Amino acid sequence: MFCGSCGKEVRETSSFCQNCGSKTGSAGKSADWGDAPPEQTPPAQPEPQVFPEGEAAGLAVDEKYCFSCGAVIKKAAEICPKCGVRVMRAGSPRQAADYPPGYVPKSMIAALLLCLFIPGGHRFYAGKIGTGILMILVLILTFGIGYFIWWIIDLVSICTGKFADKRGYALQRD
To answer: HSE (CB half, 13 Å, CA atoms) of 150?
Structure first.
């Protein structure tokens, strides 16, 4: 496996790249902080792929490394064309091209206005009913302090386009 940020080889059981420190796609595969348990021997690692100096040092703005094979791919690619492994990070909001038939995207402006004026309203609008109720309970139980911190985080995530609805789709910019 290769790091998606720097292109260096990373052990399959590692949660972070030893070279640059970025998180890898295999978090949680081993219970012992990235090392194999003592009773098991680690699997044989393939020979590390050597990158030419210019390629490793000069990625274009819209390029990244595949974490599986180390190939240079486009940042927007969901699947590596060289090895066929899905490279889209889990947790990143889905975009408009992924909408299923009949899906009506949620509006970013509506979510922003609800966030500003109705406690937890933006979460109800996005279909996150449980966290909407929890947000109101936090408002009541912490006298607004915990709610204010959560509100700021949600406000920033809505404004930067990182807030997603219940199905994981990014809010649509109007």
So the answer is: 19
